[in-house]
Amino acid sequence: MSPTPNNIQAAVIQHKGLPDQASSLNQTETLIRQAASGGSKLILLQELHASLYFCQTQTYDNFALAEALEGPTKTRLSALAKELECVIVGSIFEKRMAGVYHNTAIVLDTDGSLAGIYRKMHIPDDPGFNEKFYFSPGEHDQIQQIGFTPINTSIGKLGVLVCWDQWYPEAARLMALAGAEILLYPTAIGWDAEDTKEEQQRQLDAWTLIQRSHSVANHLPTLVANRVGHEPDPSSNTQGITFWGNSFISGPQGEILAEGSNTETQILSATLDLSRTEQLRQIWPYFRDRRIDAYSALSQRSIKSQ
Known about the structure:
The chain is an alpha/beta fold. The protein has one domain (7-299): Carbon-nitrogen hydrolase (Nitrilase/N-carbamoyl-D-aminoacid amidohydrolase, 4-Layer Sandwich). The protein has 5 helices and 15 strands. α1 packs parallel to α2.
């Protein structure tokens, strides 16, 4: 593996979902090629990009969308990564075995090899986001290097997390402590039409703020790819989710380097200077001053007050 370059041009792709895998992968390929032609060597795709967001309803037929790791999505992305000599972070509905399915990020290196995978650790269960019906959570095992473990690639160590993971500072911190150089969040999140415009804006602001805070707390650049556009609930003629887009790239102090709209298919790109992490950690030594002797209670579900 060649030395990690200090400067990496990265791209985040956000787009509207399409109903079938063939059309979705064709759309993805077109956008990846555009991003690579612009010089990007790291390309992040959104969560479950090969289909519509099927988790709005609990339907057994949707399990037919699952594929093995060595399935059509990985095969297509692998060929593109090798041809374009870039690292691609994709997302699949993984069938691990009969009855065990995961929401899995796959990382393809510049030679087309599978550099690693990350199986979503935090699984939501909310109206419109029925993910516990479909997905088992990923395991965390430091020996096997799964869970909150960076994935080594030819351009650096990637701390890949998925959607609901983005609300947990513990996940980002564990990735940083294990040597991640970039945080990446493929995402599918949107608005409930019944919420007021004010509440919708508060939700969007909170979502952006929490992920930018991971950049600040860990001095790492962060890439976030979210879906965009309205996807109806198959069980209702009036409801559904309007995915709010607003994908972004933030620098290691939380500064916005690139940001998408809430309506359009877009490719966002920015140059990441990985050398800034060490510089900032010397100036703002959060890692030096962590009280690791006093944090054991974080492993408890709740703490009984005195």
